[in-house]
Amino acid sequence: MRLLLLVVALALWGTAAARCPTPCICDNLRAHVLCLSGNLTAVPGTIPQLTKKLDLRGNSFTVMPVGAFLATPYLTHLDLQRCKVERLEEGAFRGLGRLVYLNLASNGIALLYQESLDGLSSLQQLILEGNRIEEIQPGAFGHLGSLTVLDLRANALVYLPDMVFQGLQVLTWLRLSHNALHVLGSEAFAALPALRRLSLDHNELQALPSEALARLDGATRLDLGHNPITYVAEEALAMASLKHLSLDHAALQDVAPDAFALSPQLRTLDLRENQLQGLPPLAGAGGLARVSLAGNPLLCSCLLRPFRDWLARARVQAEGSCTAPPALRGRPLDSLRPPEMRCGHPRPTPSPAVPSEQPRAAGSGPCPQGCACSPDFRHGSCRNRDLREIPRGFPRDTRLLDLRQNSFGTVPPGAFPGLKELVSLHLQSCGIGALRPGALQGLESLVYLYLTDNRISTLAAAAFVGAPRLAYLDLDRNAFVHLPTDAFQVLPNLISLHLQHNAIRELAEGDLAGARGLRWLYLTGNAIGSIAPTALAPAKMLEKLHLEGNRLMEVPTSALRGLPALSELKLSRNPIKRLGDGAFLPVASSLQHLYLDNMGLEQISPHAFAGLGPKIRSLYLESNKMSNIPDMSNFTGLEILNLRDVPFHCVCQLLPLRRWIDKLNLHVGATCGSPAEARGLKVKLSVTFQTCPGWSRGEAGRASPDKTKATSKPSKKKRLGKWPARGFQKSRG
């Protein structure tokens, strides 16, 4: 029979091969067709039906129309490199259910639509390198359940939204190198349970995207080299399985001692070609075997002894050599003996964090005494110098200035003269109590301003005059009791405002006047008890509003009016006991992520979620006290639903919820709190529903734990991503 089928197949191929398109070459034996650089403007319609590999490189298709390959359903490999493709119509690849390899590199594709890749259920490798992709619409990869490698290198991506890779459940390598990424959504990688390698090198990340990376609990390799990252903060990387980390050719000036404490499997750390003068002992990185520091300006003084001693104790191999002092220049780290690592005589006003012999960076031009200036990266640093006044005299082309951990007290007018090209300014932990009017005068290129961990309680609008491009303002952990009213009038480009962990008590009318471009507002951990109905109205473009850990007693429904773009709302850890009807109606058309966990919520009215429906993608209701929830059958787009630690009353009234959960194909964590015979059981497995009117025999089979164990095959469902004490994601069906 097999021989007969083979003969028939060869006969069909031979017949079809006779119709091989004129500019193409057909290989009968291997079922390959090559149509290279033939200036074709459409896919030939006479390609043999049994073709398995089709190479169309170097043609001119421009648009790939719907059903372009319906005539070749047996394709396994398709190469469309350098074909001037600018648009993939939705359904362009329908019918290619056997395709495992698709190469679309070096085209002009700018946007991936939701159905652009529909029909490729067997695809394993997708190459999109060297296009002009600026945006990926949600769901674009939703039909690629077999994909293992996704190559998006050398595109124009600047931002990755939450859940953008939803559906890629077996993806092992995601390549995002050579883009312009500088903002990653906290849940951008949340739906990648099988990912083992993530390449983010050659982008514009200024800091480790810690929250986004924490979702990748199975990744073993992370490439972050060639990003302008200046420092790695405490516990910045929480990746349980990470073994290899590359941070080479960045702009690192410092690494916290416990930066990698939450990545216990880390084996190799590549820090080549940075601006590190030394490292502290890396506490918590107990499995580390190798650290590469080649190309750093290592200062092998007494201050480096703790690191050198730690290397010896932990038996960690280190690559790198000394730049200073002159007597040790060129000496490999592993050849140094502690007595050789000496510090010179202190200056009259020594700084404990700076050795007396610290030189200015060679060739850096002007640089304030005691600071370091890097001409290559255009960075300046006076971190932890115990300075009382902001130093002057930095190179005029400085783009990043790190002044953290000093004791300035105030920022006076005109504190940064001549720094018209400065983009990022770090003033964290400087004891700052006030920014005087004109403090930022002349910083016309400033985009990022970090003022975390200071003593600021108020800000006048005049403090920001002269910095019109400011987009990211971080005021976390200061002493604000109300928003800095009117300060945003001179900041027309403000996108992100951090005011977390202050003492703000209310949001009043006019607090956000002028913040018309604000997209992300972070107010976690304040004491906000009320929000005026018009307080948020000026921020009409607001997309994220984080209010968790405040003192709100009810959902601020009236304040949500006029926010047509709001997609994420966090109300966790507020003492809200009841959700009334239409609580989220003002944002029902845009809301996608809703956090209502850990509130002590006791009652949800039947119409509390009125207006919400298919757009909702994640809903967090865990750790509350209600015993039932209203009908949510129209929440058809849910990808995450967490009902853990909710004491459901598993009686007939709850049967609609039980049936809905059964159809969702989601792990929701719902358990019964009562009656006594059901306490602790999963809602889906409770037998208390079997006496309810309308209960069917089929449902009884699904509800019986014993029967399930005896008859069912092992589940193919997989938990996607790491969600610490939080949600669960959609399983493979």
TrEMBL record:
Region (Disordered), start-end ranges: 321-362, 695-733
GO cellular component: plasma membrane
Keyword Signal: yes
Localization, UniProt: Secreted, Extracellular space, Extracellular matrix
Keywords assigned: Disulfide bond, Extracellular matrix, Glycoprotein, Leucine-rich repeat, Repeat, Secreted, Signal
Ranges for domain LRRCT: 296-344, 647-693
InterPro entries: Cys-rich_flank_reg_C, Leu-rich_rpt, Leu-rich_rpt_typical-subtyp, LRR_dom_sf, LRR_TM_domain-containing, LRRNT
Signal peptide: 1-18
PROSITE patterns with a match to the protein in the record: LRR
Gene3D superfamilies (alphabetical): Ribonuclease Inhibitor (3.80.10.10)
Keyword NADP: no
Occurrences of domain LRRNT (ranges): 19-53, 366-400
Coiled coil (residue ranges): none
Compositionally skewed regions (Basic and acidic residues) per UniProt: 331-343
Function of the protein: Potential negative modulator of chondrocyte differentiation. Inhibits collagen fibrillogenesis in vitro. May influence chondrocyte's differentiation by acting on its cellular collagenous microenvironment.
Subunit structure and binding partners: Associates with collagen and binds to collagen fibrils.
Membership in a protein family: Belongs to the small leucine-rich proteoglycan (SLRP) family. SLRP class IV subfamily.
Annotated protein name in UniProt: Chondroadherin-like protein
Gene this protein is translated from: Chadl
